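New to this. Please check this protein:
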Amino acid sequence: MINGNTLLVPHIGYPTGSFRAPMIYNPWFERRGIDAVVVPFAVAADGYPQVVEALRRTRNVRGALVTMPHKVATVAFLDEASTAVRIAGSCNALLRREDGTLAGDMFDGTGFVRGLARHGVAMRGARCLVVGAGGVGSAIAASLAAEGVASLALHDVVPDVAGALAGRVRTHYPALDVRVAGNDPAGYDIVVNGTPLGMRPDDPLPFDPERLAPSTFVGEVVMKQEITPLLAAARRRGCRYQVGTDMLFEMIPAYLEFFGFGTATPDELRACARLVYSTGGSA
């Protein structure tokens, strides 16, 4: 029951029809007895600066979840930015401090590497390839660098985009072997699809799965289906893999910790989501 003490966590983006967060966070808050609620805020780009200013002044706002089209624009409003934000050039989490200042972080990569850890993947010393240097790929690259990988190869269909990301990673991790590369997955321990390829049935694969060694771990970010064509091909090669929704359900505990609400396991969160779906809810 929302009351005068309820803490608000706006989920800001536009459009909001596909938002999953309220369907996962709010049942978890209820189970834990936490007086907080995630609320969709349908905010187009032209109104976003005014909304951020209002958040600064709203004392029962704990923070905000930020999604498209505002992840990049949010960086300019931050009083404090994490290393992941500075590398990715985007932000998907705002924390409002008591004085109205805003700290920002980017948890796409955090969710991805937490998933790898849960799968038992050794990241320290690993040779990694990230295909796609956009927002999600950049965040994953930042988090892999933070985990102490031995080398990080970056590929994008626009080489300058991959080159710019490589430069930002080097600035924060100067000892790391970072380079722009092709999308050949041969010779890597971890290969990541950080592109949207796989969202549509006619999408090409982001790289040639026949070049994967069976020992390579393949990570996916596409969530439209659990086993994407890429993962199906990787599975046929004998590779271990991570599905796209693993990133989502590993990311949410990082948000909860950031907002000071404690933490959760992915299994708890998946159970909350299943409960909503079984009772007629929609994400």
Observations:
- The first helix runs from residue 21 to 32.
- The mean pLDDT is 94.
- The chain has two domains: 7-106+261-278, 109-245.
- The chain is about 35% helix and 20% strand.
